[in-house]
Amino acid sequence: MKKDIQGSKSRKIIELDKKIISQSYHRDSFGFVYDHAKGDYIYDVEGNKYLDFTASVAVANIGHANDEVIKAIKKQVEKGLHCAFPDFYAELPVHFVEKLLTFVPPHLNNAFLSNSGTESVEAAYKCARWHTYKKWFIAFEHAFHGRTMGSLSMTNSKPVQRERYAPFMPIIHVPFPYIYRMPFATEEECTQYCLDKIEQAMQKHHGDIAGIMVEPIQGEGGYIVPPMDFHRRLKKMCEKHSILYCADEVQSGCFRTGTFLASEQFNVKPDIVSLSKAIGGGIPMGVTLANKQIMDWKQGSHSNTFGGNLIACAAGSASLDYMKKYKLGENAARQGKELMKILNELKEKYECIGDVRGLGLMIGVEIVKDKRTKEHAEELVNEIRKHALQKGLILLEAGKSVIRLCPPLTITKEEVVQAMHILEDAIKQSI
Ligand SMILES: Cc1ncc(COP(=O)(O)O)c(C=O)c1O
């Protein structure tokens, strides 16, 4: 049944929003106004219920308003909200990090705490520059690392994000192996082309490159999965040139792809890792991880006010426990396979599905005008999302014309099947 999304309540809120909220935010919610959420479902102010295939942008990995997290937050609220951890010692943030370190490869044994993805990338960037004394960084075309000036300098996803903000930090952008859209016959040729370009960049600024920032799977840029040996070969090149390999796992981390870090899927050990989004269990948090020898900056060289916030650490800690207890990584891998199977069947049936790619529950469906020309179909993406929403499924886009599927890692097989029925109906209605 078609939902009445834009009723009088939502219209009123949207009107007020347009008057008093910065319109730099990117909203295309088709009139949907959030009211509350529980588990895998979101409810709007008109009383409609939706299956959430966005996890509120890869944050709600353990589902919305998780009971264990709420319990931990309530308990902490009674004890205190903020302890100025960057200025005073405190138990909870230290224990949170101690727990987090058991989820990641052992060489990552030091953490810097902050409040967002962009901050956790900034910290990685600054840490690499501090440690190496070097100035340049390499980042990728289509990359998204955040919007503060250091991270934005590396971001290269949509032109509007950088428009009017130059000059940037000294960054060299190099191609990412976007197999579907690059003119190569094989994955190997595509990988080699990109690695050659990176090698050229490394040689051009030889001796003055601190690090390379890379998303294991590009997120905002279009859920682009590189060939499985790309990261390993890239890391090897970094070692050869003494360049730090920094993995931005803000979106791909916290079991989204099946393993805690997506880097594990590609068999690489990053020198520095940036986490955020799901790590705070729904409360803002950023964590930058590295080996103690790399995180060697001295007192005062990087800090903040809210890093190690008590509510965020309580929520983050409960969230880690929940992920482990309910084996959410295994569920992500299992449901991801199920989704890929159904999506590949849909790809055979519909001319507008050009490509289906992903790992675990980080899956992109590239929508095109026709399979042969691969022309982007931006408007069709919007139509499909709108019709899906009207049928009770929330979807996000990514890149130029990609539907991104990143549901909570708690979804069930029944919900996967239900979501794919809705998606197919929405496609039929939109083409
Ligand atoms: C890979 C990646 N890095 C960094 C960021 C920036 O995170 P935030 O919006 O919390 O600053 C994002 C946000 O989407 C992201 O996907």
Mean pLDDT: 97
Q: Are there runs of 5+ residues with pLDDT below 50, and where?
A: none
* Structure classification: alpha/beta
Write down the CATH class of the largest domain: Alpha Beta
Level-2 CATH architecture of the largest domain: 3-Layer(aba) Sandwich
Q: Helices and strands, in N-to-C order? A: HEEEHHHEHEHHEHEHEHEEHHEEHEEEH
CA gyration radius, whole angstroms:
21 Å
Number of domains: 2
Which cofactor or ligand species appear? pyridoxal-5'-phosphate
- Fraction of residues in helix: 25-40%
CATH topology of the largest domain: Aspartate Aminotransferase, domain 2
> Biggest β-sheet: count, sense, barrel?
7 strands, mixed
CATH superfamily of the largest domain: Type I PLP-dependent aspartate aminotransferase-like (Major domain)
Distance separating the two termini: 19 Å
What would you note in describing this structure?
The protein is of the alpha/beta class and 431 residues long. The chain folds into two domains: 8-65 and 327-430, Aspartate Aminotransferase, domain 1; 67-325, Type I PLP-dependent aspartate aminotransferase-like (Major domain) (Aspartate Aminotransferase, domain 2, 3-Layer(aba) Sandwich). Helices cover 39% and strands 16% of the residues. The chain contains 14 helices and 15 strands. The strands form three sheets. It has a seven-stranded mixed β-sheet, with helices on both faces. The chain has a four-stranded mixed β-sheet with strand order 1-2-3-13. Helix 3 (67-79) runs antiparallel to helix 11 (310-325), helix 8 runs parallel beside helix 9 and helix 12 (328-349) packs parallel to helix 14 (413-430). The longest helix has 22 residues, at 328-349. The chain starts with 7 loop residues before the first helix and ends with a helix. The structure holds pyridoxal-5'-phosphate.
